[in-house]
Amino acid sequence: MERRFDGRVALVTGGASGIGLAVALRFAAEGARVAIVDYDRGNLDRALPQVRAAGAPDVLAQLCDVSDQAQVRAAVDALMQRFGRFDVLVNNAGLMQFKPIEAFTAEDWLKVLGVDLLGAFFFIREAFAHMGRGGAIVNVASIHAVETTPHVASYAAAKAALVSLSRSTAIEGKARGIRSNAILPGAVDTPMLRENPNVKSGVEKLDERFVGRPEDVAAVVAYLASDDARFVQGAALRVDGGRLDGL
User: Fold this and answer.
1) Residue 161: which residues within 8 A CB-CB, separation 6 or more?
2) Which pTM was predicted?
3) Would you tell me which of 26, 93, 112, 228 could form a disulfide with 14, CB atoms 3.0–4.6 Å apart?
4) Which tens digits make up the pLDDT trace of 73-104?
């Protein structure tokens, strides 16, 4: 495999499972030193040897609630102390809640927004403080940002806002030499998909032809984070196997 990230440092939130782990493994295989950030210590402990075995010269596993800006700052401080540089940020951590609109509370919304939107903002703010020219930010939004299903209003709204934040980051990052793009994954074969109450109940119909693998998403993230995408700025790239193209 091509090693596009030799000498670079990548941080992946929600990096201990699912899409985030696949992204961390891809960066490791391409030579990056990797910081995996997650709120689940058990998942971190299981992910750490996998990322090392994939080829990362060094790996940092950092416990962090991305909705807590003090913990975000501590995670980036740990990265800088360990590696001395910060080249790639992947905001992948996500949270879904399933309720009809009338059942949602303000606290429900704030919890989802805290992880899915503010968490990304907190890391972007730290990236602007520490990244040099050539840095890249990839925000993992969702196809729900443009087409959604019942009972996930807070998640869909947060992911739509994350696409907007990606554009704003691209505009303000350009003068700093930092690129920002978003991806909108569709159905991806992870526990988050299979345990989705809408999928289990049949509210959201799945056609297995349009269910991707975490590695499919990781390949797109790696492209956007690499110099191959040096002229891609402010994009929102659908990664759904063409699921939304059918009538």
Assistant:
1) 113, 117
2) 0.94
3) 93
4) 999 999 999 999 999 999 999 999 999 999 99
